[in-house]
């Protein structure tokens, strides 16, 4: 038996006959004459070399072989519908905009490379990216305002699915003349909790990671300033307001030039995952899968 569209149509008619128990009712429903429908069922039986239907005065019933074939036919037809739906999604999203929300560190230091690579392999892809903190990114994904979200939070809400991409480390940085700039002994968690710090706002992945690391030690931080951007944290640290806690990705140039110094930590784990999230149960456009693969460091 071939797999042409007409065969799928005949299978669909067989399933409907099984549901209604009447060739006449199915013929009327689909706009065929009953002899035409009977010929199509006979053609299906010849192709399969099986007797599928028993015709009698009380209607049409399935043979044992017919019941098995109907079960299989429902699976085949379901797969065909899913295939057609997937192709429709592919057509719809070929030139549509992919909505991405990204937390600040990822948006500033990683996403530009990912989007450049995406343009190389998907030149027609259009990406609209909003930049905010990790909590707001998760909100945007959860409520359908973004197709994909890139977050730095150690915890992920249950309404979204997550794929970990990499690990990032927070660092504590200071500038001269802060005493920690020339300190040879590592700073303890208790030292860090007592020190007025420059920190990101609640809801950011940076702040969540720092708060959780101190909480596991039974400690709470003492903010000197709460700032909503990495650039503001760096600027405040550079003029000597106090130690700043932010991603190592954000201070590569300043550490390299010696304008800021990374402070050694003794008993505090400030590692955090970088992840992509999307709403559970939602079929993503194909370009989203390409972007995720690029972000994970794999070729298409």
UniProtKB/TrEMBL annotation:
One of its GO terms (molecular function) is DNA binding. The keyword GTP-binding does not apply. Residues 7-63 form the HTH lysR-type domain. PROSITE patterns: HTH_LYSR (PS50931). Gene3D superfamilies: Periplasmic binding protein-like II, Winged helix-like DNA-binding domain superfamily/Winged helix DNA-binding domain. InterPro entries: LysR_HTH_N, LysR_subst-bd, WH-like_DNA-bd_sf, WH_DNA-bd_sf. Keywords: DNA-binding, Transcription, Transcription regulation. Belongs to the LysR transcriptional regulatory family. This is DNA-binding transcriptional LysR family regulator.
């Amino acid at each position: 038996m071939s797999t042409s569209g007409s065969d799928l149509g005949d299978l669909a008619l067989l399933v409907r006959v099984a549901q209604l128990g009447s060739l006449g009712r199915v013929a009327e429903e689909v706009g065929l004459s009953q002899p035409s429908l009977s010929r199509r069922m006979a053609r299906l039986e010849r192709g399969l070399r099986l007797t599928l239907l028993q015709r009698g005065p009380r209607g049409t019933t399935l043979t044992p072989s017919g019941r098995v074939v109907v079960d299989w036919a429902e699976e085949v037809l379901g797969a065909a519908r899913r295939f057609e739906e997937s192709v429709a999604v592919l057509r719809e999203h070929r030139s549509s905009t992919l909505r991405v929300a990204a937390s600040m560190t990822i948006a500033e230091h990683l996403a530009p490379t990912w989007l450049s690579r995406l343009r190389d392999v998907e030149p027609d892809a259009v990406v609209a990216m909003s930049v905010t903190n990790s909590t707001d990114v998760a909100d945007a994904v959860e409520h359908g305002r973004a197709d994909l979200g890139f977050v730095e939070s150690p915890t992920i809400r249950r309404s979204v699915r997550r794929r970990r991409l990499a690990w990032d480390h927070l660092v504590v940085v200071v500038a001269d003349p802060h005493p920690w700039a020339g300190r040879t002994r590592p700073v303890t968690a208790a030292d860090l909790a007592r020190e007025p710090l420059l920190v990101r706002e609640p809801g950011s992945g940076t702040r969540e990671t720092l708060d959780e690391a101190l909480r596991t030690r039974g400690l709470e931080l003492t903010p000197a300033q709460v700032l909503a951007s990495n650039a503001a944290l760096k600027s405040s640290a550079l003029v000597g307001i106090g130690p700043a806690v932010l991603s190592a990705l954000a201070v590569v140039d300043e550490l390299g030039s010696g304008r800021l110094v990374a402070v050694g930590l003794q008993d505090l784990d400030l590692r955090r995952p970088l992840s992509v999230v999307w709403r559970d149960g939602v079929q993503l456009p194909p370009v989203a899968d390409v972007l995720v693969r690029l972000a994970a460091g794999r070729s298409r």
